[in-house]
Design goal:
54% of the residues lie in helices and 8% in strands. By secondary structure, it is mainly alpha-helical. The protein has two domains: 48 residues, no CATH class; 131 residues, no CATH class. Helix 1 packs across helix 2, helix 2 runs parallel beside helix 6 and helix 4 packs across helix 5.
């Protein structure tokens, strides 16, 4: 059990040397009594006190800013998975509407309502072009799910559908992707979502 502080005279020490009212007080900082008000007076009216107070206020506000920043980042990261799903849904909806009536990009099977949005360069590997419309085409379930995208036939038919120039473009973007440690941010995802929402309205 700790003993209560003893009364000592309010007499400044260190940075507060020369200040103090000499009255007995229990609680002191730099030798100045907090209960008698000498410590507050020193903080507000002396040069060293003002410097001390400014530093304390800066650190206090800095801690608050750090906390608010961390809280904002936490909220954004928490909502990111849901936003990714939402963007994927809107993007794939556009692809399926755009390619409605076209045969499977890989095997040529006639279109049906069960066609999916199949990636040429895998979404889980090439994240920067995961939502690039040049990299996604209408594809039958057999090729997309059971044949793992049927890449060989996909590579033969994609240049004919989108043109060699655009095929070269998406291939180059895929090469760039390999060198990037990419992470999605909310603003970019919202931008992509808005883009595909607009494209759907234009169909």
């Amino acid at each position: 059990m700790s003993l209560p502080p003893k009364d000592k005279p309010c007499k400044g020490t260190g940075l507060a040397k020369g200040y103090g009212c000499s009255k007995p007080t229990k609680y002191r900082v730099y030798g100045l009594g907090k209960m008698c008000g000498c410590y507050s007076d020193w903080l507000l009216n002396s040069e060293n006190g003002k410097i001390k107070l400014d530093k304390a206020m800066f650190h206090s506000s800095q801690t608050r800013r750090d906390f608010e920043k961390a809280e904002k980042e936490h909220k954004e990261s928490k909502g990111l998975p849901a936003l990714l799903v939402n963007v994927r849904t809107v993007c794939h909806t556009y692809i399926k509407l755009r390619d409605k009536g076209k045969p499977c990009i890989s095997c040529g099977t006639p279109w049906n309502k069960y066609f999916q949005a199949g990636h040429y360069f895998k979404a889980e590997t090439f994240s920067t072009i995961e939502y690039n419309e040049l990299n996604i085409s209408g594809q039958c379930q057999l090729c997309n799910l059971r044949k793992n995208g049927n890449f060989g036939d996909y590579s033969l038919r994609l240049p004919k559908r989108i043109g060699q120039e655009k095929f070269d473009e998406i291939t180059q973007l895929a090469e760039i992707d390999k060198k990037i440690n990419h992470k999605w941010d909310r603003e970019k995802l919202k931008e992509i979502r808005k883009y595909y929402q607009t494209k759907i309205k234009e169909l």
